[in-house]
Design goal:
The structure holds two protein chains of two kinds.
Chain A: E1 4-5, H1 8-16, E2 22-26, H2 29-37, E3 42-45, H3 50-56, H4 65-74, E4 79-84, H5 88-96, E5 101-105, E6 126-130, H6 133-141, E7 146-149, H7 159-177, H8 183-190, H9 194-203, E8 209-211, H10 219-227, E9 233-235, H11 237-240, H12 245-257, H13 262-269
Parallel strand pairs in A: 2-3, 2-9, 3-4, 4-5, 5-6, 6-7, 7-8
Chain B: E1 3-6, H1 12-21, E2 27-29, H2 32-36, E3 40-43, H3 48-57, H4 61-69, E4 74-77, H5 79-84, E5 85-89, E6 101-106, E7 117-122, E8 130-135, E9 140-144, E10 149-154, E11 157-163, E12 166-169, H6 180-197
Parallel strand pairs in B: 1-2, 1-3, 3-4, 4-12, 5-6
Antiparallel strand pairs in B: 6-9, 7-8, 10-11, 11-12
Classes of the chains: A alpha/beta, B alpha/beta.
Chain lengths: 295, 198
């Protein structure tokens, strides 16, 4: 009875279990408890939420192992953590800490502007951001077991997440309409491996779970993403940069489950206090746009 | 027989596909009115803390608990097993379960995600064929009541149990193409239980 760890099914399966749920950014054990109590399916441990990374600038890196372990000790739900794009040693450190998922994230400052981490070398599964289908398939080819739209993290502006979801799902629909002999050129255009392109064309969906992230700040934002075909939602700065985090977190969880019921979303949206202030993505100078990191 | 899948959170889609492959037409259950319309229920994999909490908020917790107690056939995988257990260990403070199965379950007993694994195990349904079992941050059963039958073990730990109208596995048969467990639930657990009620 050989027990095999780190298989594709085990890694991708873990993401399947998160579907219909909300994953929340937390910077300490207290926030992690609030997130768990609000019904989060997992927490993302990081030192600064994207809004603060944006405000404070500088190089953003993997979090302190002490802080990650404190969060792991404080909750029973999965704990994820971020590594810099291409920084495979940060990823090895996170794996040794026993985090449940690694986000190879554009929110941190990239360590390698050419290559992403070879994620097949790890037992722990990875989630990666994507702005379009080609990017998603390149990450899956490198071993990502879950994809999230990038959105524009730390803004509270949902327009980029919306654009990425439309882009990814639109390209999937287009692939499904092609003749089989047209998929070779489609693969070339997407700059993605033919086998993955063919699989997507046949199934009409990505081979891994697709979450959405970046700029989600309200229950209605979460529901909007779910109705765009997201399997679930990451909320970063939106919760703990708002007036009443516990209540807003619970409200986003409810709206994610009942994304197709405006009455539930209306109830969830009542009396939440102030949402995070937010920045319009259009006002961000190009070098400060995180979604453009990664390729 | 109308079979529902509790669809508050988790791998609902995979259970629906597995049930369709077994020849039933499942519906999703998120509201008390939808629960009232089904004869049997599947509790999917997911986060047990999230599912229990959503059930409570949307008024599904008590009705579901009552239906389980009244004999509705239920199958739970992973989080579903936790939700059917009378007692749980390593739980979140105040974590509630629907209960009904006289077992004690330890959450995340096999470890964190890096310890998640798959393995061929025997499932005691009369056939001797092995089943490919996928364990993801999986629980195990630490105590079984006297009316609980153990159908599978990993090392010495029970990972599939049955008691009358209730079936639970700590692994995820819905993630494989082998639908024996779902078929077993429909044919050997749900049908006889519903026959008895009639």
């Amino acid at each position: 009875m050989a027990e095999v760890t780190g298989t594709g099914r085990v890694k991708r399966g873990m993401a399947e279990m998160l579907k219909g749920g909300v994953i929340m950014d937390v910077v300490n054990a207290e926030q992690a408890k609030i997130a768990e109590d609000a019904g989060a399916v997992a927490v993302m441990a990081l030192e600064r939420v994207p809004a603060d990374i944006r405000a404070q600038g500088g190089v953003a890196r993997m979090s302190d192992p002490d802080m990650i372990e404190k969060i792991q000790a404080s909750v029973s739900i999965p704990v994820m953590a971020k590594a810099r794009i291409g920084h495979f040693v940060e990823a090895q450190v996170l794996q040794s800490l026993g985090v449940d998922y690694i986000d190879e994230s554009e929110v941190l400052t990239p360590a390698d502007y050419k290559n992403h981490i070879d994620k097949w070398n790890f037992t722990v599964p990875f989630v990666c951001g994507a702005t379009n289908l080609g990017e998603a398939l390149r990450r899956i080819n490198e071993g990502a077991a879950m994809i999230r739209s990038k959105g524009e993290a730390g803004t509270g502006d949902v327009s980029n997440a919306m654009q990425h979801m439309r882009e990814i799902n639109g390209e999937i629909r287009r692939l499904s309409s092609l003749r089989e002999d047209e998929l070779y050129v489609a693969a070339k255009e997407l700059q993605a491996p033919y086998e993955l392109v063919k699989e997507v064309a046949e199934k009409g969906k990505l081979p891994v779970v697709l979450f959405t992230a970046g700029g989600i700040a309200t229950p209605a934002d979460a529901a909007l993403m779910m109705s765009m075909g997201a399997d679930g939602v990451f909320i970063g700065s939106g919760i703990f940069k708002s007036g009443n985090p516990a209540q807003r977190a619970a409200a986003c969880v409810r709206a994610t489950t009942f994304w197709d019921d405006p009455k539930v979303i209306a109830d969830a949206s009542r009396g939440l206090g102030e949402a995070m202030v937010g920045i319009n993505v259009a006002d961000l100078p190009a070098p400060h746009r995180l979604a453009e990191r990664g390729w | 027989m109308k079979v529902g899948v509790l669809a508050l959170q988790g791998d609902v889609r995979e259970h629906i596909s597995a049930l369709i492959a077994c020849g039933v037409t499942p519906t999703t259950v998120r509201r008390p009115s939808e629960l009232a319309g089904v004869d049997a229920l599947v509790l999917p994999g997911g986060e047990s803390t999230t599912i229990a909490q959503l059930a409570e908020i949307f008024g599904l917790f008590e009705p579901l608990k009552l239906r389980v107690a009244a004999g509705m056939p239920v199958y739970g995988s992973c989080a579903g097993m936790i939700l059917l257990a009378d007692q749980i260990l390593d739980a979140k403070v105040d974590q509630k379960t629907f209960g009904g199965l006289d077992i004690t379950v330890r959450r995340n007993a096999f470890g964190r995600q890096v310890d998640s694994f798959e393995s061929d195990i025997s499932f005691n349904d009369g056939s001797n064929e092995l089943i490919r079992a996928v364990f993801i941050r999986a629980p195990w059963v630490e105590r079984v009541g006297k009316d609980v039958e153990v159908l599978s073990r990993v090392d010495s730990h029970p990972v599939a149990v049955r008691s009358g109208h209730l079936l639970a596995t700590s692994f995820h048969p819905e993630l494989t193409a082998d639908h024996r467990i779902h078929r077993y639930f429909i044919d050997e657990v749900a049908k006889p239980a519903l026959q008895k009620v009639k």
